[in-house]
Amino acid sequence: MDASDEGGDAPSDDELAEVDLDLLHREDLARLQGVLDEQARLRNLLDAVVAIASEITLDGVPTRIVRAAGSLVGARYAALGILSEGPERALRTFVHDGMDSDVVAQIGDWPTGHGVLGLLVDEPRPLRLRDVAEHPASYGFPEHHPAMTSFLGVPVRTRDHVYGYLYLTDKEGGQDFTEVDESVAVALAAAAGVAIENASLYEEAERRQAWLSATVEITSLISDDTPTDRALQAIADRARSVSGADVAWVVSGSDPRELHLEVVAGAPVDREAMHALPMEKSLASLVVRTGVPVSVDDLATDPRAVDPSSLPGWPRLGPMMALPLRSGSGIEGVISLAWTPERIDAFRRLDPALPTSFAEQAALALRVARSREDRKRMSLLEDRDRIARDLHDLVIQRLFGVGLGLETTARLVPDDESAHRVRQAIVDIDDTIKDIRRTIFALGTLEGSTDLQTEVEKLVERAAATMKLRPRLRLEGPVRSTVPTALAPDLLAVVGEALTNVSRHAHASTVEVRVVVDHDTLEVSVADDGVGMPSEVLESGLHNLRERAACHGGELRVDSGSGAGTTVTWRVPLVERD
């Protein structure tokens, strides 16, 4: 009996050969398809790497990397985090793919760079996990975060610098990530590192170009005969714009004890409050003393700093750098750049050498502008000196000669009325000579001067605007050079108070102010032809003037009569009492 009789017809050899051939054919097709898929994936990887590495900016690069990585390794979720400068591991950029926007909104803040993600920075090498939650360094997922199992993470780096990390989770089909997936992710991360480095170099080149352009602009502006105050403002404006700082300001002065906050960019200007800041105990003072730039991470916590955040309308400031405005003749001042605490990353990305070089060039240009202004002042003073000599040597001498002739004529005129008129003309000539001499003194003072004689003249000018008449001012003797500094505020107070009383109560048509320095005595008198003072009057302002005179060992005298006008005389010695 053969086998066909017991169990039916057995497959022939031809049939067996056909079955084996079909099986081999299917296996070959599977292998071929795998090779084609692998080639397609490698081709897509190559295209992605070439496209990413060719970028010189980061615009759109993170999104392209994340989508390419998720597609090439078959991951449900993919994310790329780029770190900011500094030790906090704060993220500068975070791009993800695979999550709905509603889920992202519910999760809230970006990852903080701890746990498994922190390992990719602390130990920059690829990490593959079957279940990320089982790793000892895992912190778990925040609320509303979707569950994730398989994990593949690689650092984004070039040489020894780690820029961030790329990670993928949940391999499709519930499988684990393979070595090939790891190789793909490493290649993409390497391309991302090159792109980030290229972008950083490109941004650095643009920043250098911007600082160079700002320096050229400042130099050009100052060469156009720009006043110093406008030049300082331009320096602050350009430095703030190019550095990306929130506020910039310039402190002027070469003496650490006499510094003033002059101009501000990016915040309201309150000059009275600015000048009240104790700059002699500030970082600017330290920079002026040492000549070395200073940077701090937080103005509020640095004991050496004066925080201008207290000024009205200023933002809360955190990091700051102070740079010397140094020229060949020394330090002209300090320029400071400050950022809000939230923008500390912008502060850390700024190379201090760039604003330092800008400050040195700006200081040189500023020095040129100030030298030009000094030359203008000297030229103006020379012109005024020439005019003053002509007034003294020609005009005054001629008037003096005319006066002497009139004195001789007055003695020869028999008519009393005519003689009186001649004598009055002589008095007028004497007054004119005194006015010219006062003008000669004034010619020696430039506009903006704060000497005592100029301040008295300003008081009289302001009173003229209030009283609708012009008080006559007489300055006799060396008022500018002889009156001690301690007496100056009281002298101005006496003139101001007396003129105020005339304006309020006298109803006068003429007012004369005399300031006389005679040997060792200063006398101030204000006389009017008004209604006079009543016999019983409550002294308030006059009482203050009496006390001011008494403080210097002097006296106040008031001469007045009904309808006869009033004369207030304030007389003090020029020698200070112990």
Key features?
GAF; His_kinase_dom; 578 residues; two-component regulatory system; Beta-Lactamase; 5-stranded antiparallel β-sheet; 3 domains; kinase activity; 15 strands; Heat Shock Protein 90; elongated; disordered N terminus; kinase; single chain; alpha+beta
Annotated CATH topology of the largest domain: Beta-Lactamase
**Overall number of strands:** 15
Q: Main sheet, how many strands, which sense, barrel?
A: 5 strands, antiparallel
CATH architecture classification of the largest domain: 2-Layer Sandwich
Unreliable stretches: 1-7, 32-36
- How is the largest sheet built, in terms of strand order? 2-1-5-4-3
Give me the secondary-structure category: alpha+beta
CATH superfamily of the largest domain: GAF domain
Distance between the termini: 151 Å
For the residues shown, what is the average pLDDT?
Answer: 79
Number of domain units:
3
Binned, the helix content reads: 40-55%
Q: How big a fraction of the residues is strand?
A: 15-25%
Rg, Å, rounded: 44 Å
How many distinct helices?
16
